[in-house]
Amino acid sequence: MNSKGLAVLSCCLLLFVWAECQKEKPSKTTEKKATKELKAKENKFSRAAGKKVPQGSSKFLKKGQAKPMNVTPSQRQPSPLSILTRAVAKGQFQKVPDTLVLRAREMLDLRCKGKMVKWRYPPYLDDDDTDRRLRIKHFERHSQLIVVNSTAADTGEYSCWSFQCYDNPQELFVPTEDYYEVIQMRTNHPTLLPCQVTNPLAKVTLHREFPPENVAVDGIDISYEVKRGFTIHHPRPSHAGSLFCMADMNGVRQISTKYMLIYVNYPSSVPKPAIQASAASFHIGDNFNVTCTVFGEPEIAVDFMWEYPGQQIGRPPYVRERTDLVRQGGQVQQESESILYIDEARAVDDGLYSCTAENLQGTTTVSTQIHLLQTTLAPRKAKTG
C-alpha cells in the first residue's frame, strides 16, 4: 500500500422483518409506526481495529422527511458518501434507508463498497449452523451479505465499514474496542465520559441516543476538555441513559463509544444508627422490643441485620421495618427504622442485642445489653400450733 493514509467509511441500517408473509406491502401506517419506534440516529459510528485509522461516514434519511429547500451552489453542503446498498433485482441496486422493512422469508441482499470490508449484524446469525442462512462473500471492490429465509428474529442493526485510501487520514476519536461502556453515576460524584479526540480542532458535541437529542453543555453542570472528554459534575437521574459523543471536522463526522449511564443515589457517608430497648431488663414471660433507627438522605436504601441471644437456640427474628420522610433541623431527612420483637421472653434472651445498618458507603453496628431479672420467692410463714 502507498504512503497515503488509511481511513474507514461506514454505513448501517435498522432492519424489520414481518413475522407473517403478506401478499402486499405493509401499510404506510405500520411503516410509519416502525420508523417512529426506531427513530433514525445521526450518522452511525465508524471504527476500525488495530492501528488502521478509521474515518466514519454514513448517511441516514428519515422517512417522511420533507425535501430540503433549493439552495445556491455556494450554500450546498457536501453529502456524506454512501457505501451500503441493497440489491433489489439482478443488476439493480438501491441505497438503503435508515429503516428497512421486509416480509418474512424475503431475502436480504446487501452490498458494501470498499476493500477489507467488515460487517456487523445480529450475533445469533453466527450460531445458526443448521440452515446457514447468513452468507458473506468478499470481492475485490465490495462485499456481499445475504440473509435467506428471513424471520422476525433477524430484526436488528446491520452495518458495514471499509478501508479506503485518502491523502488526509483521520481518526477523530481515540480508538476503543468497546461498542458500549457502562458507567455508574453517583450522587455528588463527577462522572467522566472519556471520549477523547485526536485533533483539538475537531468540534465535539454530546448526544442522547433515545430519544435522539443534543445534550446541553453549559460548562457548569456539564463541561468538556479535549484531553479528557465530557464531565457531568452533578449527576442526576435525568442524565441516565445511552449517550455518545460526536466529532465533526472538515465535513467528516464520527461518533464515539456509546456510554450507558446508570444513576445510583449514592449516600454521602456510612449510616449512623441509634439503638434503644423498650426495657433494660425483663422477667421471664415478658414482651419487649429493640429499635434501631437511622436518619439520612432521602431515597438512600438502608439494610438492617440483627444479632441477639436467642439465635443460639434457633429463635426466629420477628422484625418490622419502615421508612418515612421527616423534617429534622430544618431539613427533610429519611428515617429508616427496624424493630426486633421478643415475645414471652425466656432466660436465653438475656444478653447483648446488636443492630448493623448498611448502605452503599459501608456498615455501622450498635449494641445494647438487656438483663433478666431473677424472681425471688417470699419465705413461707411458720405454722403455729
Describe the structure.
This protein is an all-beta fold. It contains one helix and 26 strands. It has one helix at 28-37; strands at residues 5-17, 84-89, 92-95, 99-102, 108-113, 115-120, 134-138, 142-147, 156-166, 180-186, 191-193, 203-208, 213-214, 222-225, 229-232, 241-249, 252-255, 258-264, 274-277, 281-282, 288-296, 303-307, 318-328, 331-342, 351-359, 362-372. It is elongated. The model is unreliable at 1-9 and 17-80 (pLDDT under 50).
Compose a concise summary of this entry.
With 385 residues, the protein is mainly beta. The chain is built from one helix and 26 strands.
The radius of gyration over CA amounts to 33 Å
Taking the alpha carbons of the first and last residues, their distance comes to 129 Å
Overall pLDDT score: 77
Shape: elongated
Major pleated sheet: 6 strands, mixed
The portion of residues assigned to helices is under 10%
What is the overall number of helices? 1
Structural class of the secondary structure composition?
A: mainly beta
Taken as a percent bin, the fraction of beta residues is 35-45%
Strand runs, count: 26
Low-confidence stretches: 1-9, 17-80
Taken in chain order, the helices and strands follow as EHEEEEEEEEEEEEEEEEEEEEEEEEE
